[in-house]
Amino acid sequence: MKLYSKAQICMVIAVSVALTALSIVGIVFVIDKHAQSQSTMIMASQPAKDTEEDVYFPEITSLGSQDDQTVGLPLQIANSAQSMSGYSADEIENISIYEKYNESVVNINTEVLGINWFLEPVPQSGGSGSGSIIDEQGYILTNNHVVEGAYKLYVSLADGSRYEAKLIGTDPESDLAVIKFSPEPGKKLRPIPFGTSKDLKVGQKVLAIGNPFGLERTLTAGIISGLGRPIQESETIILQNMIQTDASINPGNSGGPLFNMRGEMIGINTMIYSPSGGSVGIGFAIPVDTAVRIVPQLIKNGQVRRGWIEMQVIQLFPDLVNYLRQTGKAAPVETGLLISTVTSGGNAEKAGLKGGTTAVRYRSTVFYIGGDIIVSIDGKPVTKIAELYAALEDTSPGQRVTVEFYRGSKKMSTTVVLAERKR
Fold it and tell me: 409 and 317 in one domain?
């Protein structure tokens, strides 16, 4: 049996007490750290009132200030962590723009005059489309083809109210129109702000709001698929610089806004390419810069004043080119506009342009050959009548343009002071 001294026993007891004390301190420290960690996690799950915009929605705050209620929806979502938990940043952008501007998109319905069995004019239902509120006084931007031929116009708002509207101005060459309704006093309208179409990029995300097939204020999303598309709408009208998008556009979307992700209108949805009649991902919108230029004139004058060259022309075609060769009146081009006649005393005659002298008939059309053949205006090639209209679409009366033409085999040019085009 081993014996221990009194000093050894005291040493063992002291060491045991010290180890026990250290163990207790360690346990308390671990419990305290765990409690602090849990507290920090709970605090982190609560949105900080002073910094919630910067923390949760930095990309949304760029839409505007709180004074103009631009960030109203993001702030509502930010006020509840539970509300935002199911949304991605991309979805929040879509929701914000829709919530802010869907009530600024109206449904337009028209009445037209028909003829009954007794040959009497009777009102009947026409078409429908969309429009964008662009002014607090009730001005609405839409497409010309939405209101064309309308006897009466009706505007339906998001709150269910319906107003009769009046036509302010139309411009078939840009397919734009402005109509107006009169809201009752105290009714606040939210205009959609114009952006710009100058800096658009293929691949840029866009949103469209409209009333496809009468389903009011529908949102679709997509990207810009192409830019600068010329779309020939009729024999004399080419819609220039159209925006192509794969955002779904269907009948009834016409006249509605195309948005960028800053909530600005960058285009007016106008048409689709579709063999089936439904959306196949190829839609077109008029660039908003065209509307910025056109709308003030529509509100002021009811129409757009454009420049014109006072002449009548015939578009060259193969049979005519062959005939000109046979008669010795051919030019070294196979495309262009043959001047049939110039208005006596008009700006074309004053500029030295000459019409034809020999009358010919082609099918049911009579015109004159032997005149000048125009090939460009201000450097823009002019090979079709629609291109003549397109070349002068952005001009005004009194403006000077340079016209290049062939007189026989000689290429010449002259400056023409434009007259006002008659509608």
Answer: yes
Amino acid at 360: V
Per-residue pLDDT reduced to its tens digit, 212-250: 776 777 899 999 999 988 887 777 777 888 999 988 887
Percent of the chain with pLDDT over 90: 53
Quote the CA–CA distance of 161 and 293 in Å, as a whole number. Answer: 31
Residue 96 lies in a domain: no
Rg (CA), the chain: 35
Looking at the 3D structure of the chain, how many domains does it have?
5
Per residue in 295-314, pLDDT (tens digit) is 999 999 999 999 999 999 99
- Residue 268: give its domain's CATH number: 2.40.10.10
Could you give the residue numbers annotated as active site? 145, 175, 254
pTM for this prediction: 0.69
**At residue 53, what are phi and psi to the nearest 5 degrees?**
-65, -45
Residues 37 and 126 in one domain: no
Q: Which of 133, 165, 180 is the last residue of a domain?
A: 180
Contact predicate 113/136, CB 8 Å: no
DSSP-derived secondary structure letter, 378:
T
29 pLDDT tier (thresholds 50, 70, 90)? low
The pLDDT of residue 105 is 93
Other CB atoms closer than 10 Å to residue 360's CB: what's the count?
Answer: 17
Domain extent, residue 30, equals: 1-45
Dihedral in degrees, nearest 10, Cα atoms 163, 164, 169, 171? 80
Within 10 angstroms of residue 327's Cβ, the number of other Cβ atoms is 12
Q: Residue 330: which of 373, 367, 374, 360 has the closest Cα? A: 373
Let me know whether 33 and 66 are in one domain. Answer: no
- Count the neighbouring beta carbons within 10 Å of the beta carbon of residue 93: 22
Tell me the C-alpha distance between 18 and 127, whole Å.
Answer: 93
